[in-house]
Amino acid sequence: MRTKSVHVEHLTRVEGHGNILFNARDGRIEKVQWQVSEAPRLFESFVRGRHYSEMSHLVSRICGICSIGHVLSSLKATEVAMNIDVSEQTVMLRRMALHGENMQSHILHIGYLVAPDLFRVGSVFPLLESHPDAVRAIVKLHRLANEMSDLVCGRTTHPITLTVGGFTMVPKEKNLSELRQNLINILPVCDAVATTILDAIHMLPDFKRETEYIGLVSDEGYALYDGMIGSTDTGRHPVAEYESVVNEVVVPQSTAKYCNHARESYMVGALARLNLNGGKLMPRAKQWAQRFGLTPIIINSFMNTVAQMVEYFHSVEESISLIDTLLEKGLVREDTTQFKVMAGRGVGAVEVPRGILFHDYTYDREGKCVKANCVIPTNQNHNNIQHDMEAIAPQLLGKSEREIELTLEMLVRAYDPCISCSTHYLRVGFMK
Amino acid sequence: MKKKVAIFDFASCEGCELQIANLEEAIIDVATLVDIVSFREVMKEHDDAYDIALVEGSIMRPMDEKRLKQIRGNAGILVALGACACMGCVQRMVNQWPIEESMAVVYGKDNPQLKENAFYANFQTKALDEVVKVDAYIPGCPINRNEFIRILLALVQGKKPALPDYPVCVECKKKENVCMFESGKFCMGPVTRAGCDAICPTYGSECEACRGYVSHPEEKAHTEVLEKYGLSVEGILARKSMFTYRYQEEKKGVMQ
Amino acid sequence: MSKMKAMSKSDFLQLIDVLIKDESLEVHGVVAKGTKFVFAHLESSSELRLDYDVTILPPKKYFLPQYDSMMLFALTKGIQVEGVQESKKKVIVGIHPYDIIALRQTDTYYFDTHVDDLYLKKRKNALIIGANVTNVSKKAFFGDMNTGYADSGYDLMVTDLGDTMTIDIGSKEGERLLAQYAMTRDATHDEEERVRRIIEEASAKARRTLQVGPGIWHDLLEKNYTNDVWKNQAEKCLSCGTCTIVCPTCFCYDVNDKVSLNMEEANRVRTWDGCLLRDFTRVGSGEIFREKTEDRYRHRFMRKGRYLPDMLGFVACVGCGRCSSQCIPDIADPVGVFNMLSESQGMPLEKSTMTPLSTGGDIAVFQPREPLYIPRPATLIRVEKLTEWEILFEVAMDDAKPLGHDPGQFVELSIAGYGEAPISISSAPGGTTFELAVRRIGDVTSRLHALKPGEKVGIRGPFGKGFPVKDFEGKNILFVGGGIGLIPLRSLILYVLNNREAFGEVSILYGCKRPCEVLFSDDIAAWEKRKDIQFLRSVDRCPEGECWDGEIGVITCLLPKAQFDPENTIAVIVGPPIMYKFVIRDLKNLGMPEENIVVSLERRMKCGVGKCGHCQINGVYVCKEGPVFNYKEIKEQPEAFS
């Protein structure tokens, strides 16, 4: 009797805590499971009764990598709830903030979390010896992304300048100009990194599984900050009706909920965004998408990482364009306090590195939160991960335990899961 | 002989560990200064033999407590990394209610999936030093990278991992920031431990005390100032519970 | 003094732009920051705001920066140290008269006794273009302080008359700058009149309800040390340090070694410190000498109105109003505080002639003799363990010269990358080596304890006032050493024993907590054998396992057993603070006159040369006037034995 058993406790090179289980006996799969073991921090409980001005500061702490995304989604929800308009300048700066976050998160994922698998090493540290130029290039890309976020938000993790109605402080034009030049200068370095990825792409398993892809869509461009909910199966849906798209259930092996919509599961993230909006990429990003073979619809989850590289290009190019517009108009200091606190409900949705994020708040007359719900991208992916694992498992039966372990780990990593986030969906409902 | 360093996380957002990755090129210097033998977020390799453990996150379940005690047993020096580990951070506010109530709010009342499930066995949030002895603290939400380097160097050099014991105002005024109170904001700076270079006031947002108080905060005087500038009693309590709910608990004598 | 000049406003701004374009210069001036003003690097004259009322921080930040690099150590090369390179010559535009007067006060302080070369270099490297006040801030009271007009301390002083600028020339450098870069004409009589009126009007506006002028502050403060005002005000104090940071006449600092991540370099940096901060007077053992907020709060006013005037002859406040407007609980305003003090007391007050104006410290005159802060290399010759906590080090300066110290003095010992600590000298003067007995307490001393013979340290000093050995000659001496107090005392004991005939009867009393803490056992054994001195020792207690054949009890138990004539003996006492209280009480009860008692007091010391401000006992600098003090004199200071 041949048994193959894989138990990965606290998967490495992902954000947060998850376990992989695989048991096969005599050529039959007994169990293949993705478990989320992250400690629930119970955001949904402690935000009860908090003031609207605190909400974004609190939910920022859901995640250290996509805090900008949580904050923006939160601010949008509050602004919709209280009928607060923001200026064009604010929208442009917020889009830049989101680009900075995407760039930072994607490159961290590509270089630090996934690349070691492609070179069969445990971490980026050995790559410092074997591929020093590539590693230094990755660090350059990472640093620039952080510099952009620092400039716009004050700080990448738990941003400071983002506030209801706009910004507490706007960047100096001199510094934006400098950033613009740095973005232009980084493009050749991106090309070099992308070339390295192109050479290694064959290391990714050739996996296929049809599924639904969901993300923001917009006629204005590759949607990250604004848009409607788009699905490759069902077309467009208003953001306010997100609950009809996202169906959540609790499962025992996971402290995070599982989601589905038109099929048994769906996927969000860079690959989903590419599948929905690939035609609206900026030029260089589009070129690279073609070179990588990423013409929609791509149904190999492992290619999510490659899609992230395409998005890095897109973010650089669009940021340059945003800075051009900002500098042309000149930046002004805006008063963000001119609005009336009122009762209301609002839903805000943005794309964060890992996919579409919803925050849904209801406020009372004094601006205190009475109900909150939020749906995290990784939450939405857990079900798809489970189904992908079940689909790939038969193909792995003939391989060694080490190969099985590596492939399953790579599969989960490809999603770039943000597990700490995903256990902290907010569903606060209580009577006042 | 280079010191061996291992990095762990519990209930947290992993933002503090990310700051270590955010050292960019300097991370190569860190990897030269010490041997990083375990860092789950970026490394597959792991070694149970380490001199210094950097631990992020707060403790919320028995399984976490057990794992922390194991780490304490392996490490010569244990460092609490970030506000979650030092004080409990924002999730500490959960301790305002009985834990059963919070679990019900989150997962539904009497949810059968949660029965006898170790993943869901939450108790009241604890900081690290409520479970094991902690040798050094790096506060902040997230940590300040310069402070991280300074403390790490101190531990390697055998120096005391000392933190400033004066308020954020000192660093804020040295940077010539316009005081947050003058901008109509209610700042916790006067009672909060410096070391962050007053980053939030520098960017126009008031200090929220994520680094915890100085060892002898002038709380009464500060509360008077908040009242004088127009913050309600409710508002003052809300401000003091955001990151520093631990002190509220200690005052009430409520600890698990 | 040359005549007042004038030029059009546009010409003046053009001059500024020309200076900005000059690659050899760095131009700074007053610019807007939101609704406030700050001194900042100028990129164009259009940024200049000479119509400002007051800046958030005073221009002291240019000469004593918030973070000032003092020296760089190359850690891998032993104690190789180099001073910091100078930056480009600075031109600072827009400094108001009261700030110029404050800079002159700072000069006087930083050139007094020891010349601070770091500060001096920065002062010499800057050209000051002052500006007379045209807008007065709400809390300014420089009119009351008579600092609305400066007759010197600048290279050029301009007054904005609208479309004309007048310029007073204050130095040859200023004259040269004008000649080189600008076309000026003589100012008309009318323009001179307008300038005079502008100055007068500003001073008149900058008058608040100050009931007691600066000349009366000294007496008012002296007579009201225990006034309730201090306690009542301090209840609102946040101990946030704002008042000292924004004050143009505050210049205390702390020093730290910052190590680079690759551990190859250390940067010794000094940064602003303030007496309102709780740890300002904390020593290695953890004791804080000004622990109560009200003591710290009072200290600042005493320093401005009494101590600095006594020390240097000027009232150390220029009425800029920065602390008044930036103190959030609004307790820092001198106008408020002095009015409160005067109203709450009914004693008649004397007026002195002192003002904020200072006549010392002419920058042109002072030359730095040598770097004040750079340690000299020394080598550890011998390392001897004394107890579990103390080690004796024999040290030789690398230049082979004797240290040249008096008994009772101290050195500042540096270990690059760890810091600098004050250490009492424990050996008698003479010879090419000296001894330091060091307790392991903090970073520097812990690292020192790990060093071996042959390894290097840095030494500055000797500093401080030692024991007045000349006055002791021919007299009877009673040494009373408690615990580690024996360490500095030993330098005097050895000196006296080496010159035994020069002194009368000699008695040594030594007490410590337990036998295992006894220091210098070899010396003690030798002293016990001597027939020409009396030696008694005690321990507070003798725990099981330790041996002791002397007395058991606190050190005061030895006094009745010692044979000496209290009225004709000098007592030299060194020990922990608590010991002084009881020993001195007992000695006085035995009839010893107070002037016969000499003590050595410990405070927190950083610079060792009377600049950083940490060691003050009220207004007395322990590093300069001590650590050795005559009891009768020092006991007048309330903080000496609290």
- Report the biggest beta sheet of chain A as strand number plus sense, adding barrel if it closes: 4 strands, mixed
Question: What order do the SSEs of chain A take from the amino end to the carboxyl end, as H and E?
Answer: EEEHHHHHHEEHEEEEEEHHHEEEHHHE
Q: What structural category characterises the helix and strand content of chain A?
A: alpha+beta
- How many whole angstroms does the radius of gyration of chain A measure? 21 Å
Distance between the termini of chain B: 41 Å
The spatial strand order of the largest sheet of chain A comes to: 8-7-6-11
The CATH architecture category of chain A equals: Orthogonal Bundle
Task: Please report which band the strand proportion of chain B falls in: under 5%, 5-15%, 15-25%, 25-35%, 35-45% or over 45%.
Answer: 5-15%
SSE order of chain B:
EHHEEHEHHEHHHHHH
In CATH, the topology of chain A is named Cytochrome-c3 Hydrogenase, chain B
What is the percent of helical residues of chain A?
Answer: 40-55%
Could you say what the CATH architecture of the largest domain in chain B is?
A: 3-Layer(aba) Sandwich
